[in-house]
Amino acid sequence: MFYNADNLKFAKLMRSDMTMEEVKLWNILRAKRFYGYKFKRQVLIGEYIVDFVCPEKNLIIEVDGGQHNDDVHIANDKVRTEYLKSCGYTVLRFWNNDVWNNIDGVADSILKALEQ
Questions:
Q1: Rounded distance, CA 29 to CA 114, Å?
Q2: What's the pTM?
């Protein structure tokens, strides 16, 4: 797979500049804390940088803010998700407020996807 050098630099920058919601979820997923599954953050897949990926299970987790709720972002996210699926990944999307207000439900959904 071809990777753009600028995108690689941007992914590295994003690891040090995560949103509060990404940090909250990362604290659960990191260092194999989540049922022994290894996750990586801000990973470049094709031309896209995904929030979190479990390479062992080909599972991508995206945490979306309100900006993803307009027609342009909805259409772009659909294209992005279809591309990632074509690469063999399952994509789970959660809203920021789900991470803040229902982290147990988010964790349950992730675990179910990992165990499928």
A1: 12
A2: 0.85
Among the listed residues 43, 47, 42, the one whose alpha carbon sits nearest the alpha carbon of residue 17:
42
pLDDT, tens digit only, all 116 positions of the chain: 445 666 555 455 555 668 899 999 999 999 999 999 999 999 999 989 999 999 999 999 999 875 656 678 789 899 999 999 999 999 999 999 999 999 999 999 999 999 99
User: Would you say 53 and 39 are in contact if contact means Cβ atoms under 8 Å apart?
Assistant: yes
List phi, psi (to 5°) of 101. Answer: -105, -15
Length of the chain: 116
* Contacts (Cβ under 8 Å, ≥6 apart) of 21: 63, 65, 96, 99, 100
Phi, psi at residue 81, to the nearest 5°? -65, -45
